[in-house]
Write a structure and sequence with these properties.
392 residues, alpha/beta, Ribosomal Protein S8, Chain: A, domain 1, TIM Barrel, 2 domains, three-stranded antiparallel beta sheet, 41% helix, 17% strand
């Protein structure tokens, strides 16, 4: 006997075919092999017990607190479901017969109907994320944490943008204010004045979609007028309440990043009671806010914010559990390039973190990252192409 590692449906079918299984049975076994774990919050004890019994009948299982068995009026609990896709289908079918438990049925339906690949509407273009996309980072600042990403003359900037496009970048992200830990904020006038010196150069130098890295609505509006198609807001619409209206009015793509605190104080002993749960809830709230203001979900991207209000171990946990955010069915962007959590284990500066950045990229791609925001486009592109090929 030997164990089979069959995470990819194509690999499952290949093994089934080798032993002569009937083709009509392929979907059944593919669903059996797709095993997942889901956490339910805000269940009543009665709901949890019904779900527990239904899961057991269908061959799955549900972990619930010991106190849930005794019941308790008004008591709210969490539970963790262990099931493969076929078991989820059977659980959902059984629960449909009980309307009072509809929230659980609806949640299961969303899981079962979720698309395997997120997509994005960018202007008139539709992007299906069937491979990893690369975003080249351009900082027109003098104080970004990595000196190699600072561009302070138009000639150097023009050459850098053209090289990124040649090296295989899919997007260019330009920022005029550093968001490194402890950075002093600029006024919106200072940020726009700096952009006026450099943004037109970038716009003329490339045909790639340009992202503006800012959390200020007026700055975003200026950049959009100059040709930006994407707004990369590190605050997830929380620092400037006007930002959501600017994005909606201009039908721009919105990147919503998770941050705890501000760049000035975010790394001062950040704490979480439930790291992944808190980030998940944050995204749900930000997505709901964007939808309420008329931003199409097909124009949204989420970013877990590695290094933004995160301790060393937080960044590693997010990378390992990144696939949890695929439940939103939105493209996931990750900015990990040359950050401190890559250099800290070796006590090395940003200039020596390329190998670690590329190694970390493989983990991110395998766990669900759709876009990598990087300083070194060509090496990242090569790694992404290789890992994509392995995944396929």
């Amino acid at each position: 006997m030997r164990r089979l590692a069959l995470g990819n449906p194509n690999t499952i079918v290949k093994e089934l075919k080798q032993i002569g299984v009937d083709e009509e049975a392929y979907p059944i076994f593919v669903n059996k092999a797709q095993y997942s774990v889901y956490k339910f919050d805000s269940l009543s004890c009665a709901q949890a017990n019904v779900l527990k019994q239904t899961a057991l009948i269908c061959g799955a299982d549900l972990a619930i607190p010991r106190s849930a068995y005794a019941g308790g009026h008004g008591k709210i609990i969490s539970a963790i479901l262990f099931a493969n896709r076929r078991e989820l289908q059977r659980i959902q079918q059984r629960l449909e017969e009980q309307p009072w438990i509809k929230p659980i049925t609806k949640a299961l339906e969303e899981i079962l109907t979720q698309k395997t690949r997120p997509n994005l509407v960018l202007g008139r273009r539709k992007i299906v994320f069937d491979h990893t996309y690369i975003m080249g980072a351009i900082n027109i600042t003098h104080d970004s944490f990595y000196k190699g990403s600072r561009y302070t003359t138009t000639d150097v900037l023009r050459k850098a943008v053209k090289q990124m496009e040649k090296d295989g970048a899919d997007f260019i992200d330009i920022g005029a204010e550093s968001s490194r830990p402890g950075a002093e904020p600029l006024t919106k006038k200072e940020e726009i004045d700096r952009l006026k010196l450099f943004f037109p150069t970038v716009a003329r130098a490339t045909r790639l979609p340009i992202s503006i890295d800012t959390y200020k609505a007026d700055v975003a509006a200026y950049a959009i007028d100059q040709g930006a198609k994407i707004v990369n807001d590190i605050s997830g619409l929380s620092f400037d309440k006007k930002m959501v209206k600017v994005v909606a009015r201009n039908r721009a793509v919105l990147i919503m990043m998770h941050i705890k605190g501000t760049p000035k104080n975010m790394q001062v002993k950040p704490r979480y009671n439930d790291l992944m749960g808190e980030i998940h809830d944050y995204f749900k709230q930000r997505i709901d806010l964007a939808l309420q203001h008329g931003i199409d979900k097909k124009r949204m991207i989420i970013d877990p914010g590695l290094g933004f209000g995160k301790r060393l171990e937080h960044n590693y946990e997010i990378a390992n559990r990144l696939s949890e955010f695929t439940d939103f069915n939105l493209p996931i962007l990750v900015g990990h390039s040359r950050k401190s959590f890559i250099g800290k284990p070796f006590d090395i500066p940003p200039e020596q973190r390329l190998e670690g950045t590329l190694g970390f990229a493989t983990i991110l791609i395998r766990n669900g990252a759709n876009i990598l925001r990087v300083h070194d486009v060509l090496p990242a592109k090569k790694v992404a192409m290789l890992i994509d090929k392995v995944k396929q």
